[in-house]
Design a protein that fits this description.
Elements lengths: L3 E3 L3 H4 L3 H4 L2 E8 L7 H11 L1 E3 L4 E4 L8 H4 L7 H4 L3 E4 L4 H10 L7 E5 L13 H11 L5 E6 L4 H11 L3 E4 L3 E3 L4 E5 H17 L1
Parallel strand pairs: 1-2, 2-5, 5-6, 6-7, 7-8
Antiparallel strand pairs: 3-4, 4-10, 9-10
């Protein structure tokens, strides 16, 4: 895995041979079920993404539009070399769905599998037992695949502690900032400040 990682969703669009020499793109984020194709994704971008110059921030209500893990990844031996150069980002809202995603990605070995545990704008209640899920992912993923947890920008301490106790050693700081009662995400300067605080907090633990 290269040290410079292109986060999702940008990794989907900067995923080419010319970028792979020095970067590792993150593909996804994928859910268990289909949440809309290209046209739906475009509509969500046009209808919900807004820039607020006063606070230098972007707001979105995308809600993880994607074709589902089966719609993009049906692993075969011919795909393995392709996967080894990329991080696959996945997300779920229940223990059962997280374990189903683990099963569906078990036949290939990406550079990393990013567990997007903190997407704030799906509008769904999270019913995940993360202690069980983190431990299962670490136990059943190949040693060639790094398990990465994408932390929320607020309240990350408990999630970090749970992940570390399960054996996770790689983290993405951070997801977008939840707004509008959990139905929107804020990025830009406000998120940068929170993400840097999260990184500093983690570094001070070592």
């Amino acid at each position: 895995m290269n040290r410079l990682i292109i986060s999702a969703p940008f990794g989907n669009y900067l995923d080419s041979a010319s970028w792979l020499e020095h970067t590792t793109p993150t593909i996804g984020t994928f859910t268990l079920e289909n949440r809309g194709g290209v046209l739906w994704r475009l509509w969500k971008v046009l209808s919900t993404v807004r820039y607020y110059p006063g606070i230098q921030a972007w707001k979105n209500k995308l809600g993880l539009p994607n074709p589902g893990i089966d719609g993009r990844y049906k692993p075969s031996i011919t795909d393995w070399d392709w996967h080894k150069k990329r991080i696959i980002s996945v997300s779920a809202r229940s223990t059962e769905d997280w374990l189903a995603l683990l099963y569906k990605t078990s036949n290939f070995t990406p550079a990393g599998i990013e567990m997007n545990v903190s997407c704030p704008n799906t509008g769904e209640i999270d019913k995940t037992n993360y202690a069980e899920v983190f431990e299962t992912y670490v136990k059943h993923r190949s040693s060639d695949t790094t398990v990465i947890v994408k932390l929320p920008p607020i309240g990350y301490e408990k999630m970090f502690e749970t992940a570390v106790n399960a054996g996770v050693r790689a983290f993405h700081c951070c997801n977008t900032l939840p707004i509008d009662g959990g139905r929107g995400g804020l990025s830009g300067k406000p998120l940068k400040l929170l993400s840097l605080a999260c990184i500093k907090w983690i570094n001070n633990l070592n």
